[in-house]
Specification:
The protein has 614 residues and is α+β, with helices and mostly antiparallel strands. It has 17 helices and 28 strands. It binds zinc ion.
Length: 614
C-alpha cells in the first residue's frame, strides 16, 4: 500500500475539488458527517449490505422528513443505468432501532419520515452481479463497486462530507482512491459526494504492483490471474505516467490507484479523480501486441486525470446524478483523450512510428467507411451520447458516429494544423496545458466556444472554418490538407502500380461474427445490399442454390466480378425469400500514410516532434 497521509486542505486541492467549492460553500459548514458501512456477510448471494448513519447537529433544524436519492448514472459513462433497480430490503430506523415510516416518491427516491430524529439510519441491500467498470460485482472471489451505484445521498446534501467503512469478507484487502481515516481500519473519508462517487472500491486478495513517479505513490491493484510479467507491467505503466505528467508539468493528486480486473474476455476502462478501473483479457500478455493494447488502455484512462477529471466540459461537474448531463464536448473529453492515449504509447517507444501511422490510417479508413459520418457531427455525437453511443443498433452505422472515432481524428487534425501555423512552435499539447491553467486552475469549466478560442489563441489565427465544417458540421475531412503539415499523405491504394489491388465483388452486408450462421447484422447505406432489399437479421441459407458455410459465403462473394448477379435464399423472420442481387465493386487495399519524398525541413521537424513529443 502506498503512503497515504491525509490533510484536509491538501486533498481538497489535490483531488480536484476546486471546481466543486461552490457546492460545498452552499452547505452549512456544520453539516453532519454521513457515515456508511458496507458489508458482505454472504458474498455468494451478490448482496452488498449498506448501513447509512445520518446525524443532524444540535444547531440545525431537524426536518420532519428526508429524501434519500440513489444516482441513476455514474460520471464517465454517459448512459442512464438505473442503479436504483438493484436496491432491496430498505429499512430506516431511529437511534433506538424503531422502524421509521417511508415511501418511494419516484424511481430513485426514498422518503423517510424522521419525525424530528437527530440521529437515524437506513439499511438496505444492493444486488451486485455484473462486472463492468461502471457496475458492481460481489461473489465468492471478490467485491468491486462504484459508489454511485451503491450509496444514497440525502437530497440537498451533495456537498456534505462522509466516511465509508468497509467490512471485507474473508481476509480480503480494500483498495480505493479515497484517503483513509487514521486509526480506523478500512475506513475512508470523502469531502463531498462528487469525490465519494468518483472513487471505486476493490475488495479481494488482489496482487499489487507499486511504483513512484515524482515522489508520488502509484499502485496497480490486480484482481484475477493472468500471464503478465509484473516487471514489464510496472515498467509499461510507469513510462506512461511519466510521459503524461511531464506533458502537464506535474502530478495533480496525492496518490493514484489502477484497479485492474483480469478476466477471460471483455474489458474497458473508466476514469476517476485519482484512480481508474480497468478490465483486460487475462491471457493477452502473450506478446508485444498484447502489452501494446494494454498500454493504449492505460494511456487513455490516465490521460483523463487531466482531460475530463480536471479540464471539465461545461456540464460535467458538479453533477446532477438524477438525470442526463448534456455536453457537446465529449469529442474533446473522450476523442482527444483517445488521440493522446495512442500517441503517448508511440512517444514512450512502446510502438514505432510505423505502428502509429498504420493505426491512424486504419482509424481514417474505418471512419470513412461509416455512412453515418455524413449524418452526424462530432458535437451532435457528444450531445446524443445518452441515447446513441451506448445503445448501438443495426442502423447505427448509417445514422451516427462515435465521438471517440471522430474526436481522435479531430485531435490529429488540430494538432497538425496548429503546428503548421506556428512553424512547430505550438501544438495541441499547448491547448491542453492552457485549458488546464485557464479553467481547472481557476475553478471553471470550459464551453465549446472556450475550446475553439484557446485553439485560436495558441495558434494565433481563426479556427472558425475548421470548427464550422468538421466539429459542428459534417463535411468530409480533407485529410491530406492537414497531414501535409508533417510531410505525410493518405494513399488509398498500394503504391505498387505493377501489382494493383484486386477489385472484388461487394455486397455491403455486415455479418454477425458471434455466430456461425450467415446472419446479417447491419446493411451499409448506399451498398448493393441496402439498395436491393437485404435487411439486418436476414439469415442467408443458400448462394446460387447451394448451402454454403459462412467463410465460403464471404470468399465466394469476394471472388465474383463486380456487376455479377448472385441468387440468395434467406429466411426473413420465418419466411423463405429469394433475392437476385447485382454486386458492386470494392478495391481490396488498406489505407496507408506515406511520407512525401519532397518533404521540407519544416515538415520533417513537425513529423519528428509530433511523434516523439520532444
Ligand atoms: Zn475515456
Amino acid at each position: 500500500m502506498p503512503k497515504n497521509p491525509i490533510t484536509l486542505v491538501a486533498s481538497t486541492i489535490l483531488f480536484g475539488a476546486l471546481i466543486l467549492s461552490s457546492t460545498i460553500q452552499a452547505q452549512s459548514p456544520n453539516a453532519a458527517n454521513i457515515s456508511f458501512t458496507v458489508s458482505m456477510p454472504k458474498p455468494w448471494t451478490h448482496l452488498l449490505e449498506v448501513e447509512m448513519q445520518i446525524g443532524v447537529p444540535a444547531n440545525l433544524n431537524v426536518p420532519n422528513e428526508t429524501n434519500l436519492i440513489m444516482p441513476v448514472w455514474t460520471p464517465g459513462s454517459y448512459l442512464i443505468r438505473e442503479y436504483e433497480r438493484h436496491v432491496q430490503d430498505f429499512a430506516p430506523a431511529d437511534a433506538n432501532g424503531n422502524a421509521l415510516q417511508w415511501s418511494k416518491v419516484d424511481k430513485n427516491t426514498w422518503r423517510v419520515v424522521t419525525r424530528g430524529a437527530r440521529r437515524w439510519k437506513a439499511n438496505y441491500r444492493v444486488y451486485a452481479n455484473e462486472l463492468t467498470v461502471r457496475t458492481n460485482e460481489l461473489n465468492s472471489d471478490h467485491a468491486f463497486w462504484n459508489n454511485a451505484a451503491l450509496l444514497m445521498y440525502p437530497e440537498g446534501s451533495l456537498g456534505r462530507p462522509s466516511t465509508l467503512r468497509v467490512l471485507p469478507a474473508n481476509t480480503w484487502k480494500v483498495a480505493t482512491g479515497l484517503p483513509p481515516v487514521t486509526g480506523q481500519a478500512n475506513t475512508f473519508r470523502a469531502e463531498n459526494y462528487d469525490i465519494l462517487y468518483d472513487s471505486p472500491v476493490e475488495v479481494s486478495n488482489f496482487n499489487q504492483i507499486d511504483f513512484d513517479v515524482r515522489g508520488v505513490p502509484h499502485r496497480i491493484v490486480i484482481d484475477g490471474e493472468g500471464n503478465y510479467d509484473p516487471e514489464r507491467m510496472r515498467a509499461t505503466v510507469k513510462k506512461i505516467v511519466e510521459a503524461e505528467t511531464s506533458m502537464f508539468g506535474g502530478v495533480p493528486y496525492h496518490d493514484y490507484t489502477f484497479i485492474l480486473h483480469l478476466r477471460s474476455s471483455g474489458g474497458g476502462g473508466i476514469e476517476h479523480l485519482n484512480s481508474t478501473a480497468l478490465g483486460f483479457p487475462r491471457f493477452r500478455f502473450t506478446n508485444d501486441q498484447g502489452y501494446r493494447r494494454f498500454a493504449e488502455l492505460v494511456a487513455h484512462e490516465f490521460f483523463h486525470v487531466w482531460n475530463v477529471k480536471r479540464i471539465r466540459p461545461d456540464a460535467l461537474g458538479p453533477f446532477d446524478y438524477t438525470k442526463e448531463n448534456y455536453t457537446r464536448l465529449l469529442w474533446v473529453a473522450e476523442g482527444i483523450t483517445e488521440y493522446y492515449g495512442n500517441l503517448v504509447v508511440r512517444r514512450v517507444g512502446i510502438t514505432s512510428d510505423q505502428d502509429y501511422l498504420e493505426h491512424l490510417a486504419k482509424a481514417i479508413q474505418d471512419f470513412q467507411s461509416t455512412p453515418g459520418r455524413l449524418e452526424m457531427s462530432a458535437e451532435e455525437a457528444s450531445f446524443n451520447a445518452w441515447i446513441k453511443e451506448y445503445r448501438p443498433d443495426e442502423n447505427s452505422v448509417n445514422s451516427q458516429i462515435s465521438y471517440y472515432d471522430k474526436g481522435e481524428l479531430l485531435g490529429m487534425l488540430l494538432d497538425l494544423e496548429i503546428r503548421r501555423r506556428t512553424n512547430n512552435a505550438k501544438s495541441l499539447d499547448d491547448v491542453m496545458r492552457t485549458l488546464y491553467a485557464e479553467f481547472f486552475e481557476k475553478g471553471r469549466n470550459y464551453s465549446p466556444a472556450d475550446f475553439q478560442k484557446i485553439c485560436e489563441s495558441v495558434s494565433g489565427g481563426s479556427f472558425e472554418d475548421v470548427f464550422a465544417r468538421y466539429v459542428r458540421g459534417r463535411d468530409e475531412v480533407p485529410y491530406n490538407q492537414f497531414l501535409s503539415a508533417a510531410g505525410l499523405r493518405l494513399e488509398e491504394t498500394p503504391a505498387d502500380e505493377k501489382n494493383p489491388a484486386p477489385v472484388k465483388g461487394f455486397l455491403g452486408a455486415d455479418l454477425d461474427d458471434r455466430t456461425d450462421i450467415i446472419l446479417i447484422e447491419s446493411v451499409r447505406a448506399g451498398s448493393p445490399a441496402y439498395e436491393q432489399g437485404l435487411n439486418a437479421k436476414d439469415q442467408i441459407i443458400a448462394l446460387n442454390g447451394a448451402r454454403v458455410s459462412k467463410a465460403a459465403f464471404e470468399s465466394l462473394i469476394e471472388a465474383k466480378k463486380p456487376g455479377e448477379i448472385v441468387h440468395l435464399t434467406l429466411f426473413r423472420n420465418d419466411d423463405l425469400r429469394t433475392f437476385d442481387i447485382k454486386l458492386g465493386s470494392r478495391v481490396d487495399a488498406a489505407y496507408r500514410l506515406v511520407q512525401l519524398p519532397s518533404a521540407s525541413e519544416q515538415q520533417k521537424r513537425i513529423y519528428q516532434t509530433w511523434l516523439s513529443g520532444r
